[in-house]
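re: ur question from yesterday

yeah so i grabbed the chain u mentioned. its 235 aa long if i counted rite. heres the sequnce exactly as i have it in my notes:
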Amino acid sequence: MKNKISKNIVLTLCSFLIISLSNAQDCNTVPFMKKGAILEYTDYNKKGKQQSTTIHETLSSSKQNKNTNATIKATVDKGKNHEKFSAEYNVTCTNGLFQIDMLRFFNLDKLSEQNKNNLSLKIDGDVLEFPSGMKPGDELNDGAISIKVNSNSFTLVTMNFTVFNREIIGEEKITTSAGTYHCKKVTFDFESKFGFLNIKGTGIEWYYNDVMIIRSESYNKKGKLIGYHELTKIQ
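ran it thru and got these structure tokens back, copy pasting raw so excuse formatting
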């Protein structure tokens, strides 16, 4: 009897260790957590016409205690007649739980329009969480970000973006020019405020490895497509 109890305890401990190790490894299996990784996303309007490309380059990746941290630079390229715009955001992974700065989910095209001389940006934002082992029916946390465009300490305009009602509704395979990925499908609501302009709508996103965006679609409050972006290259 004691031997059976002992064996059960050992098996339980082994199972716990295997689960813990697999969660810890999740932080390293996601491509953008590796220094030097480059992901290219292409933005399209509702008619499928290309608007811009954004390169997400992992500048650094380090481990401290239980945390794996990465700093990523996103560079927007809107074509020959526009200057490139770059912004950095952070990703933290702890035992398989990813936390990504809300700046990653902000419309950087809109932010690039404010890239002018003598202007500075003050950014206050939350993080969006992506737990390891997400499954259909799971609800995810809300997030918000506020960006003030300042000139000589005077705020010219404030941009706010909020996402809420994030829920995993299923799993699907998504194919882009970067490849085919088995993804978790996430729906959400959003509200975007730019000065006096207020836009409400919904979105659908497909995530590979529970955290890497493969495709994102935005719809207005009437359910009509506004635009979308997707992963088009990875190296």
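noticed a couple things. The CA atoms of residues 18 and 230 lie 34 Å apart. also Confidence is low (pLDDT under 50) at residues 4-25.
anyway ttyl
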